[in-house]
Amino acid sequence: MKTFILLVCSLALASASFDLSSVKRVEELDAFWEQLDPQLQMLRPTKSIPENRIVNGAEARPGQFPYQALVLSFFEGDNSGLCGGTVLTNNFVLTAAHCVQIGTVATHGTVVLGAHNRQHVEPHQQRIEFASIHIHPSYIATLLRNDIATVRLAQAAVFNDFVQPIDLPALSDTRTFAGLTGIISGFGRTSDEATGASDVVMYSSNPILTNADCQAAWNAIIIQAQNICLSGAGGRSVCNGDSGGPLAVQDNGRSLQVGIASFVHATGCASGMPSGFVRVSHYLQWIAENSDVALRQ
């Protein structure tokens, strides 16, 4: 287990008043791409293809996705990056490992909960510093394998109409979720023509694919059993920048997180390529060991 305890110092505390408009998405940092294996450079967007977007999506209602988190990580060399995440408990947030480690682990960070408009300090927002970062011990940055992490919050989040935990699959749930409608959400661009990320939470949906269909569209190097894929049909997809955010399905009236946004193809959302996620059910025991979430049997 890789656990990194962070000092909640004056620098970290000051980050609660950061200007989000000046912070880049993690995938906009050159250091992120430089660590990837040459075989995965296919993921790197060309300059002509805008990144960081959920395209052909719709604006969420305030509080529609109370489990949505915004993860702001600060790295050495004055680099900082934005990602998505999900609320596991009052004390922990789930995200992608590459959101909190680019070469080195983030020195500090802030999680924003309950936000609808990321540019406003809304009364229902909670901005809480990182206390510690837990990265999967088998995370391979060059191949985006085991791309999962949890962040412990420096103080407990307060649950209300705008901040609620998401459910995870039960240990006994053996479904692949293929064929179900997957819902993605985050602060992403709304079209290929957009010049900046959305200020508000956006969401979209598409069918979840079998891994065989996903492998046919990608290749066996990137798609593993521990991945889950969402169809890119109709140009509806998560794209670089909403990494760490949720792929959810509706299950008996509740939102169930089945994936963590990890990677997309460089050709962009309009290409119809599937987007790749970490398969949450593959990591349930690790999540439980690195948070205080109670797993369902």
TrEMBL record:
What are this entry's molecular-function GO terms? serine-type peptidase activity
Pfam families reported for this sequence: Trypsin
Lineage of the source organism? Eukaryota, Metazoa, Ecdysozoa, Arthropoda, Hexapoda
Look up keyword Nucleotidyltransferase and say if it applies. no
The stretch of residues making up the signal peptide is 1-16
Q: For this UniProt record, give its keywords in alphabetical order, as a comma-separated list.
A: Disulfide bond, Hydrolase, Protease, Serine protease, Signal
**Which chain regions cross the lipid bilayer?**
none
InterPro entries from the UniProt entry: Peptidase_S1_PA, Peptidase_S1_PA_chymotrypsin, Peptidase_S1A, Trypsin_dom, TRYPSIN_HIS, TRYPSIN_SER
- State the family named in the UniProt similarity comment for this chain: Belongs to the peptidase S1 family. CLIP subfamily.
Name of the featured protein: Peptidase S1 domain-containing protein
